[in-house]
Specification:
Alpha-D-Glucose-1,6-Bisphosphate, Chain A, domain 3; seven-stranded mixed beta sheet; 24 strands; about 40% helix
């Protein structure tokens, strides 16, 4: 295979004395025997996406390694000094269970300390939400977590949090990227100042656990907590450091942990993917739940920001809820608790995203609060809290199994969400009901909603071009009818415009630009197309809905909505 000269030029830069001998040997191997691998490793710089920087570990500009992360950190250190001139600077760093996360975290700590910045480094792996909490708790200007969330074992990543505890957002992310891109690799200072690195653990853990209990507990009787039979799995990830301690301290004594998945392990040996969005990931937990007749099953992803939940249906069988379902159940519960406590004054809000269920808007209207809707990614919900200090944030979520209770943590938080969902299940059981019945009651009140996600993977440079072309086609040749229903509106977040196709009018969208398209059909269906910001995928989010007048209609109506979704998939050639 012929290697493009621009790829060779990039690779040869990494053959200089700035880079260690092991790196140089790996590049030589790729040049001589793996040119395709060389191309994928160097054809671009790894970019910040919706969840920070995430990629395959290895040598090259398009890989996670000590040099790409070192450059990030040096650029960020330079940026901090510009933002906070003549001020003492502090950062906190956490990492997950992935291969090299601990050594990469130490590299990041070394570079910050080499630049005169005080570093708090967790002595062992910790959940991402604890890092978000620690940024504010320790009064740091910035926080970093080394994680690739639920990606496969060969991935790692780098998330940046600002002093409010939320992830960086525009224009700040662009300013930081400019600072990073202006650097040469030889400008990275790897020479650590050990006196500026402090290891942290138990004291922050205790503060985080207490804060979680304070935010996500709602006067559930002691007996109800003890009576709830919980199955929990950390899927070999970091939540084992927090969730058992939180549940136990909150009074949940009947906690059954999936032992085979309890030990943190970056190989994730018992699952194809450590992603609670995938039903297969919770197979072991569901088997244990069936064996002991558990009331609820909870599984979290490796960095403990997402959770999957299974509950008993009306026949007593354990079924998995999707992220939209857990989100509306948790939000409705929070709203009801706030209402009963007399805390709803009209200055409160809940948060959601443009690809999540429209049912969140219905809930907000019913309780007299605002539902703010942002782009995909919890950094936008965190930004809402920062941008509207005169409004009180109750809670919020997104369809991809993330939820946040209150504002002590400014990112999706599976630790707090796990406690909240147990509170809901315990109170429901004490009242002779189940969490599933709570969901059905919401459907009776607000209509039956069904959502479906199609995720199409296109790897490498060719795949990236295919995804780009798919979005171009959807923009330049928009569909006018889907499944016999007219398209009545198209929202294009890249152009910041919404087109009303019935009245032939165009409106501006007051949301930051993003490569997202949403089609609205005349029967209330919604189809969203969005390339992933962290994976080589394009995602299609489909939402359909109908009235539900009685639970006797449930099976028939669910099948009707399922058929609608399949027709949309078939007509748009997404299968």
């Amino acid at each position: 295979m012929h290697i493009d000269q621009s790829i060779l030029n990039r690779a040869n830069e990494w053959m200089t004395p700035t880079f260690d001998s092991q790196t140089q040997q790996e590049i030589e191997r790729m040049i001589t025997s793996a040119p395709k691998e060389l191309e994928d490793s160097f054809y671009k710089n790894l970019e910040f996406g919706t969840g920070g920087m995430r990629g395959i570990m290895g040598v090259g500009t398009n890989r996670i390694n000590k040099y790409t992360l070192g450059k990030n950190t040096q650029g960020l250190a330079n940026y901090l000094k510009k933002c906070f001139p003549n001020k003492p600077l502090k950062t906190v760093i956490a990492y997950d269970c992935r291969h090299n996360s601990d050594t990469l975290a130490k590299t990041v700590a070394d570079v910050f300390s080499a630049n005169g910045i005080k570093v708090y480094l967790f002595s062992e792996l910790r959940p991402t939400p604890e890092l978000s909490f620690a940024v504010k708790h320790l009064h740091c200007q910035v926080g970093i977590v080394l994680t690739a969330s639920h990606n496969p074992p060969e991935y790692n990543g780098y998330k940046v949090y600002w002093q409010d505890g939320g992830q960086i957002v525009p224009p700040q992310d662009g300013e930081i990227i400019k600072e990073i891109e202006s650097l040469r690799y030889e400008e990275i200072n790897f020479e650590a100042n050990k006196e500026l690195i402090t290891y942290i653990d138990a004291e922050i853990d205790t503060a985080f656990i207490n804060s979680t209990i304070e935010n996500a507990s709602f006067s559930t009787p002691k007996e109800a907590k003890e009576n709830l039979k919980i199955v929990y799995t950390s899927l070999h990830g970091t939540s084992i450091k927090s969730i058992p301690a939180v549940l136990t301290k909150a009074g949940y004594t009947n906690l059954n942990i999936v032992a085979a998945q309890e030990i943190p392990d970056g190989n994730f040996p018992t699952v194809k993917s450590p992603n609670p969005e995938e039903p297969e990931a919770l197979t072991m937990a569901l088997e244990l739940a069936k064996k002991i007749d558990a009331d609820i099953v909870v599984g979290t992803d490796p960095d403990s920001d997402r959770l999957g939940v299974a509950v008993k249906d009306l026949s007593g069988k354990h079924i998995l809820l999707n992220g939209n379902q857990t989100m509306v159940v948790m939000t409705a519960f929070l709203l009801e608790q706030w209402k009963r406590a007399g805390k709803i004054t009209g200055k409160e809000f809940i948060g959601s995203t443009i690809v999540s269920t429209p049912m969140m808007l219905e809930l907000a209207e019913a309780y007299g609060v605002e539902c703010k809707v942002g782009l995909t990614g919890f950094k936008w919900i965190a930004k809402m809290i920062k941008d509207f200090p005169n409004q009180k944030f109750i809670g919020g979520g997104e369809e991809s199994f993330g939820f946040m209770v209150g504002d002590a943590v400014r990112d999706k938080d599976a630790v707090g969400a796990t406690l909240l969902v147990c509170e809901i299940a315990a109170q429901a059981k004490a009242n002779g009901k189940s969490l599933y019945e709570e969901l059905l009651n919401l459907y009776l009140d607000f209509g039956l909603y069904k959502e479906h996600l199609i995720s199409i993977t296109k790897k490498g440079m060719d795949g990236a071009n295919e995804i780009k072309q798919m979005m171009i086609d959807l923009r330049e040749n928009p569909l006018k009818v889907i499944n016999g229903q007219r398209v009545i509106c198209i929202e294009d977040y890249q152009q910041s415009t919404a087109r009303d196709l019935i009245n032939n009018e165009t409106f501006e969208l007051d949301i930051p630009k993003s490569n997202v398209l949403i089609y609205y059909l005349e029967n209330g269906s919604k189809i969203c197309a969005r390339p992933s910001g962290t994976e080589p995928k394009i995602k299609f989010y489909i939402s359909v809905q109908t009235d539900l007048l009685s639970l006797k209609e449930l099976t028939e109506k669910e099948e009707e909505l399922g058929h609608k979704i399949q027709c949309i998939i078939s007509e748009m050639k997404l299968n």
